[in-house]
Design brief:
With 253 residues, this protein is of the alpha/beta class. The protein is built from 11 helices and 7 strands. The structure holds S-adenosylmethionine.
């Protein structure tokens, strides 16, 4: 995984799952940095799926300006967690006078400080990707996704922004009963350049790409058609929690 882009060779990125790596990185470079995409390019999607008046959780927030963008856009309560004490301390100081933003040191694999069904949305930009780069990647990803599922309200959304293509990410998401909508966004839309030629319109970004009923078997052809010749995209998986079956079973038991 490289900043703003695709996976790097595995040797350099294996440490992305480790707290010491991120503490070291943030201690040496405290400048604001957004992985993959900045808030303005994702705002149409966030507005579509994320309610403004309910608590929202950002997992692995880093020193991104994404949460600030949400507050400027009218979001009331954005809770940010990260495994790095260094970055959380810096962000706490930075946003001392912004009551809508909270920062907490926490491992996304153990969010027991939060009650079950606490958040209307969980937003993840690059954090599952980091865990997948590290050691025990599948075990860590599974623990993370269990916790994300637990802290979401029923019909809450987990929004995963990633370089990971459906062939791989959909298999990781299959353990929970998500209803998944897939969106794609041009990598060049990240706000890191001034090119407007390659930018997708808001409507393209907010139009999901159809997945088949079995979880995307038909995806590659459909997606290829949807993104045309340009496959240089980030993927956004909007995973909607459907807990109704489970609650019914619990009631019946
Ligand atoms: C690729 S960066 C993304 C940062 C930010 N979300 C963004 O979009 O710019 C991954 C972040 O996940 C954090 N992280 C890695 N493992 C974590 C874990 N187990 N729990 C919480 N945060 C973690 C890192 O400290 C880092 O800030």
């Amino acid at each position: 995984m490289t900043a703003g882009n695709a996976p790097a060779s595995s040797s350099g990125s294996q440490a992305y799952g480790e707290a010491w790596y991120w503490d070291n990185r943030y201690a040496h470079d405290s400048s604001i940095f957004d992985w993959y995409q900045k808030y303005p390019s994702l705002a149409p999607l966030i507005r579509l799926y994320v309610p403004r008046r309910q608590p929202i959780l950002i997992v692995g927030c880093g020193n991104s300006a994404f949460s600030e963008g949400m507050v400027d856009d009218g979001y009331d309560e954005v809770v940010n967690i990260d495994i790095s004490t260094v970055v959380i301390e810096a962000m706490r100081m930075k946003y001392l006078n912004c009551p809508q933003l909270k920062y907490m040191v926490m491992d996304v694999r153990d969010m027991s400080a939060f009650g079950t069904r606490s958040f209307a949305a969980v937003i993840d930009k690059g954090t599952l990707d980091s865990l997948l780069c590290g050691h025990n990647s599948h075990h860590n990803a599974a623990k993370m996704l269990e916790e994300v599922w637990r802290v979401l309200k029923d019909k809450g959304v987990y929004i995963l922004i990633t370089y990971g293509s459906p062939a791989y990410r959909l298999t990781i998401l299959k353990d929970q009963n998500w209803t998944i909508k897939l969106h794609v966004i041009d990598k060049l839309q990240s706000g890191n350049n001034n090119s407007s030629d390659s930018e997708m319109s808001n409507q393209e970004v907010t139009s999901p790409i159809p997945l088949d009923a079995n979880g995307g078997g038909a995806f590659p052809e459909t997606a290829a058609a949807a993104v045309g010749v340009n496959s240089d995209v980030h993927y956004i998986y909007v995973c909607i929690k459907d807990d109704s079956g489970k609650e019914k079973n619990e009631e019946e038991a």
